[in-house]
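Comment on both lines for my students:
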Amino acid sequence: MKTAPMLSSAFLHPAGQTLPEPLLALRRERAGRLVDMPLPTRKTENWKYSSRHLKLADDMAISLPVGGKTGHSLAVPGYKVVFVNGVMIPEASEFPDFDGLSIRSFNDLPEEDAGKLADRLGSTLDPKQVQFAHLNGARFEDGLLIQLKPGAVLDQPLFVIHETVGDASGSAYPRVFVDAGANSQMTLVEEYISDGDAPVLVDTVTEFNLADGANLTSIRLNMEGENVQHIGATGVVQQRNSRFESHCVGFGGPLRRHDLQVRLEGEGAETKLNGVVVTQGKQHYDNHTSIDHVAAHCNSEETYRNIAADESHAVFNGRIHIHQDAQQSNADMNNKNLLLSSKAEIDTKPELEIYADDVKCAHGATIGQLDRIALFYLVSRGIGRRQANVLLTMAFINELVEQIPVEAVRETAQTRLNEFFEQTFIEEN
């Protein structure tokens, strides 16, 4: 009988020791959980379509050094915090001068605050579904703690730039924890970029805790290069009357994986999840989302759209769980997918699990190709075939792109999408 491959012990030895002792103790505890951890295979349900793309060589276990680019050239219309290979670079960052907001590196936390944080790290995630969040917990060398005081409203978006410099093979483990006080409000933009050609692993975890009435918008833009395997997890816990809005835009790579888990624990909480993914060549992107309606009178709305070209592969698995006490819940999930090639593949699996009887829930998924009649109509009106393909494809995702509330992010996404179209559609004479 063939045994499952195990995580190499090389990944259990973090290099950095500058964290406060409570966080070092947490890291040792998480490393203990990884001993003899089997790697996902095709028989692992939530990795069924992605396990074959996971390539963890021992040289990837080495923590990438801090150095190289520092993000000085990254101009953003707001505040920014720059991380290089998972470690914050203060001199490249621009912190807001705002009494209602605290932004601190994990490495700079006093021991008492580090102890409180250690008790909460990982609390928003289901450990059975996000195996690699444990690896992040065992290997992170720094992180970002964002705390909004009750009633605080940040006037501009806060950009967190995660830059991976892969001049040699290795790995990085970015970590962010956001604590939003009652009736506070902010927009957080996470951008993942890379430089270098060596094969690297980026394993990220971001967590959000929303107190009563908090309003938080999260924008996640993944633009890393073809040398980067990216595995990310985002956990969200919401209390009474809070609102969480997520916009994820992802461009494919050798392996892209994002788990987004939202738990509605307070009555009247609302969440909205939007996602756009494009893949080409032999790229792969896998989105797994989960929304748990724990309390009554909560609303959730989810819309994800995938486009796959060439021989690429996109995956969407969305789950909505209505708990027994979550009466009068409203939940809607929609996933639409567009294949631009007969060799491309998209797998979609919407799930509804309902244990309450007074709810309104709906889910749907479609997979199709560009409408040949619409394409013929545009070409017959003098539009070039390539431009007609671009117009129809952009129309498929533009509704979600236009909803991104930060103009600079919309423009960045549009630029990358135009590059995608340039490579995917060839002008026919």
